[in-house]
Amino acid sequence: MKNLKHTIWTTLILSFICAFFVSCGSATNRNSRILLDSGWSYSMEDPIKDNVTLKPLADGEILELEKVKEIAENGGVGEIFLEKKFIVPSQLQGRDLAVYLGRVTLADETWVNNIFIGKYGRFSPKEFSAWNMARCYSIPAKYLHAGENTLRVKVCVDGEGSLGANMFIGLLDDANAVATRENFWHSKINLLFAFFMIIIAFYHLIIYIRRPVDKENIFFALLNFVSVFYILIYFIYEIPDLPRERANFLLYQKIFSSGLPFFLPFLTTSFVNAFLKRKERKVMLWIRLAFLIIPVLIVLFMPNYPALKKITAPLMTMLIPPMLYIIALLLKHLFQKDWKVVPLILGFSPLVLCFALDLILHNALKLDNVPYFTPMGWQFVIIGLLFIMANRFAASTNEAEYLNTHLEKEVKDRTRELSEANTELEAAKFRADRDMDLAVHVQQSFYVNKAPIVDGWDIAYTFQPMSGVSGDLYDFYTDGRTFKGLGLFDISGHGIASGLVAMLAKVIMDRKFKEGYKEPLNHVMDSINRDMVESKGDIENYMTGVLFRFTGNKVEYINAGHPKVFVRTANDGKVVPIMLPNSDNDNSGGLVGISGLAPSFKVIGFNLRPGDAMLIYTDCLYESRNIEGEEMTQDGVQKMFSNVTGVTANDKLKDVLNQFNSFTKGVPLRDDLTVIVVQKK
Known about the structure:
Layout: H1 2-22, H2 27-31, E1 34-35, E2 41-43, E3 55-56, H3 69-72, E4 77-87, E5 97-103, E6 107-112, E7 115-120, E8 134-139, E9 148-158, E10 168-171, H4 172-210, H5 216-230, H6 232-235, H7 249-259, H8 263-275, H9 282-300, H10 305-315, H11 320-335, H12 341-364, H13 374-405, H14 407-446, E11 457-464, E12 472-479, E13 482-491, H15 495-515, H16 521-536, E14 543-551, E15 554-560, E16 566-568, E17 575-577, E18 604-607, E19 613-617, H17 620-623, H18 633-642, H19 649-663, E20 673-680
Antiparallel strand pairs: 1-10, 2-3, 2-4, 4-9, 5-8, 5-10, 6-7, 6-9, 11-20, 12-13, 13-14, 14-15, 15-18, 16-17, 16-19, 19-20
């Protein structure tokens, strides 16, 4: 049953194809044909020479002459002579006839009874294929014998070689009609489309020059130019004086037939991106360029035409990812309800349909005499895109004319709308400014406004919020004139949210530090972390920072993901970072306030001698840049602290800030800045 269905469909399609592309004008003409599809013999030398033996040619080999033993042994390259004996039936005797050979690959020279009747293409060493031209050569009646006649065809084979299908000798009008029909569908129609595509290309090139903002016009113009050169092989023999005598067929095939196909999906994707006003990521552009450049380079380095033909089919698989990418782009915008993509999908649909039709006709049914429809499908795509572009251009023109006609009214309407919107924005800004002022006032009431005066220590600091509310949190822990500790933390994010988290953290840290003063400092930090996670709930902000505890000359210190703390010794002015023992970093714990994490905080202990000073700061100090875009870096902070000359903590702070301001001159701060100097008296 399956075979029966296949036979029925094959018969129907064959009938359709024959009716439009292969059939002659009348049944009389068809019945008068001398069929030539079988009974050929061959030799590698001209049969008119003495002692040349002809060998029978299998029927299938006439379509794949490169597989003939002698040619295959020569790498699929050579010249072969084909010979066919025939007898003119009585109804055709005494009449002028013609031989129809279909499309011959690559080139041919043809004789009847040793009389030359025609040729197409060029033989080596200046070979050039005329594979797309149907051969039809007239045979005057005087060239024919009443008995046996000989048709001889010399064929140039270079990686491929064949005679056409459905060959015959028949009446001159009959053969000319079949050849004319064949050449129209394979050659002339492509010439016609090429002419229109050149006009379309120049038209859209001019539009792009006048209006460069619409980049889809330049890509559409390039698509048309590339398409013209790609299909040039189909009609090159229709143009007078082409191909030129010096034209190199191998180079032509490399550039136009094998190289240009990879430009088409690249330009098509660029056109789609420009049409949809879509900004493409650079990595995708580089990937697309790779799928263009790599196969083109491979093609250009092929040493000969058989090698080029052999590599072309597998190389064409590199067209699949770019085409799938185009389909994915179109479907993505369709699913996003970007209705601008609908015309593009409709515009590309003829190519998909024609490609499917070619797969059925040429790959499944092996109908080699049927024209390829995919090039026609692409030409219909060009026409479809032309209408889409014209419609968009007309819509833009109509809108411009409408705005020009109704400009005064539109200006009044837009002015009124802008005025109303401006009033709403001013009201919203007033409310936002009021809320911000309140937030600033509340936060400032939480923070100390001057450094504490304590026994044995000299403290100076600066606090510069980028905007009203700061995400920097600092606090000094004292008991009368006894200095017990300090904390400096940086809340992630900016604005009111981080400022509110900072105030929440300050309350928690103040309570936990006092409650746990006699406990290990890492336990205090663990308790702060747990309370922060519980108190802020689903708020995503987290903290980095440092926590210090002071007991006489002894200092305990935890760094939770914060910048390095530097110590400047009094005796030699050397500045070094505080590090974990046997380590090259000072990060002694994880981030604070992140649910699901269990950071392990490590305590660093050290002593400060009289005159020693510490520099503690938030990331704004080392991440800020100068006008050339260079970052301060933590090494730069260390160098600034080394260069201070002041005696007191306040003098050292001023020296650091002066160097920092000199470095960032002309560049506004992009973050909150807090800097603390603590010096042992």
